[in-house]
Every structure is written in structure tokens, then in C-alpha cells.
Amino acid sequence: LASSVWTKDVARAMATAARLQYGCTWINTHFMLTNEMPHGGLKQSGYGKDMSLYALEDYTAVRHVMVAHG
């Protein structure tokens, strides 16, 4: 789920956003997505964080390869 906060007082909006339990909170806009920001569920709403670098973790596996030259 997501939320929007509309106000002229940005400090108050930031304080309100900190108390909200949503995966995304927009201030003075709604549903504006950018590639740099993760978008996804929180708690039992959705899975993971789409549309960001965090989403790559679902498709990667950490591996260790060591080569002894010599």
C-alpha cells in the first residue's frame, strides 16, 4: 500500500510520513515513480522492492571464485 500527504508544511509532512506504515509515501503528489527509488510492498502487501537496485537481489547469487596463480 502507499500513501500521499498533502500540505504546505514539509516538516510536518515528513513527520507524518515517518509515522505511516506504508511502503511508499508521496508528499504533495501521488504515484510519481522514479527508477532510483524502490517501489513495493511492506508487511504482507506485495513482495520485495521493484523498480530499483534492490530488485536485483532477487536475481543474483553471491559466489566466491578464487584463482591461485602460480
Can you describe this structure?
- The protein has one domain.
- It has 1 helix and 2 strands.
- It has one helix at 10-19, and strands spanning 2-5, 24-27.
- A two-stranded parallel ribbon has the order 1-2.
- The longest helix has 10 residues, at 10-19.
- The N and C termini lie far apart (56 Å).
- The model has no long low-confidence stretch (mean pLDDT 76).
Bin the strand percentage. 5-15%
The ordered string of helix (H) and strand (E) elements is EHE
Q: What is the rounded Rg? A: 18 Å
Q: Give the termini distance in whole angstroms.
A: 56 Å
Mean pLDDT: 76
The largest sheet has its strands arranged as 1-2
Low-confidence stretches: none
Please report the number of helical segments: 1
Structural classification:
little secondary structure
> Helicity range of the residues?
10-25%
- Extended strand count: 2
Q: Major sheet, described briefly?
A: 2 strands, parallel
Query: How many structural domains does the protein architecture include?
Result: 1
Summarize this structure briefly.
Helix content is 14%, strand content 11%. With 70 residues, the protein is mostly loops. The protein has one domain.
How are the SSEs ordered, and which strands pair?
Layout: E1 2-5, H1 10-19, E2 24-27
What descriptors fit this protein?
70 residues, little secondary structure, two-stranded parallel ribbon
